[in-house]
């Protein structure tokens, strides 16, 4: 999630704003916030509970700081309050616009995670249709995917 997603989000919002396409910029930002809250934060809750897991907190802080910077043109007061609370700096409006680091984007990993999220969504939909609660363990689940997934990505799917 950390620098890869932030870099992708930075460039999408920046490019959209440079083209005066506010709708596309806010859509990209809203999608990032949705991904952050519904995927990263939900998956990282156990890491947040451990005081020794500073990486999870640092990643979330970087994401929220970047969101406040990208949100500033659209919601100046909310973005400023958010930025001040996160950084203790003067104002989001005095900060530099975030620059995307395209070199950290791993398109292969992004594609794997897209497949993982699709599989997890299909699993939740199947549970809903079968009226099986999310917290109830399944004896097994079968998913056919058209690509090989890394063990780390597979473990994210099985957590769903």
Could you characterize the architecture of this molecule?
It is a single chain. Helices cover 68% and strands 0% of the residues. It has 2 domains: 103 residues, Isoleucyl-tRNA Synthetase, Domain 1, CATH 1.10.730.10; 53 residues, no CATH class. It is globular and about 55 Å long. With 160 residues, it is mostly helical. The model has no long low-confidence stretch (mean pLDDT 85). The protein is built from 6 helices and no strands. Helix 1 packs antiparallel against helix 2.
Tell me the name of the CATH homologous superfamily of the largest domain. Answer: Isoleucyl-tRNA Synthetase, Domain 1
Biggest sheet architecture: none
Q: How many distinct domains?
A: 2
Instruction: Give the percentage of residues in beta strands.
Output: under 5%
Fraction in helix: 55-70%
What is the CATH topology classification name of the largest domain?
Answer: Isoleucyl-tRNA Synthetase, Domain 1
Poorly predicted segments: none
Shape summary = globular
DSSP summary: helix tally: 6
Q: Kindly report how far apart the N and C termini lie.
A: 17 Å
Number of DSSP-assigned strands: 0
């Amino acid at each position: 999630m950390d620098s890869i997603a932030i870099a992708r989000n930075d460039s999408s919002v920046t490019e959209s704003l440079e083209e005066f396409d506010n709708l596309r910029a806010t859509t990209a930002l809203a999608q990032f916030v949705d991904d952050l809250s519904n995927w990263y934060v939900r998956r990282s809750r156990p890491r947040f509970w451990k005081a020794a897991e500073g990486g999870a907190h640092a990643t979330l802080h970087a994401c929220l700081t970047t969101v406040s910077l990208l949100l500033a043109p659209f919601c100046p007061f909310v973005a400023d309050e958010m930025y001040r609370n996160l950084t203790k700096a003067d104002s989001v409006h005095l900060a530099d616009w975030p620059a995307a680091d395209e070199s950290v984007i791993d398109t292969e990993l992004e594609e794997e995670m897209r497949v993982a999220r699709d599989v997890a969504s299909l699993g939740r939909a199947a549970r809903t249709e079968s009226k099986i609660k999310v917290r109830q363990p399944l004896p097994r689940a079968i998913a056919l995917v058209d690509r090989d997934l890394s063990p780390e990505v597979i473990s994210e799917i099985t957590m769903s």
